[in-house]
Amino acid sequence: MKYFIDQIKHYQINEPDVHYSTMHSRIVVVHQHIAPDLMAFLEKMLGAFGWPLEQCHHLTWTGEESDDNYRLLWGNKNVKLVLSFGVPFHSIGIFSLAKPYTITSAGSCMLYSADALEKIALSKDLKSRIWNDLKSLNIKEIS
Fold it and tell me: What is the pLDDT at residue 60?
């Protein structure tokens, strides 16, 4: 009997991150692990839109796809905008047909995806495209 039990594959089930349900940030910025200079670039870009940095929650994607870890985050009604840089939405538990560089409405929040920050930082065209797409978006007006 012990041999049989030892042969059963065991799965580790991650607990959802409880702090997501009490988070007050209105903007979630999703990206892979980035260097400090790219983080400064990202914060400068967010500041240029006039969005308070204290309203931004950085979600560093580790490459693990687990809906359980994001269920409480996407159920949080405070989140009004999800910006994803180089991370597909399905990888973070959002199943939407959102096209890159297009603002898409998904329930009570807006979705926007773009290339990885490394690529954006090197391209004036991509920076301009993001600026034109997001400059008129007022987070306070999103309900």
Answer: 86
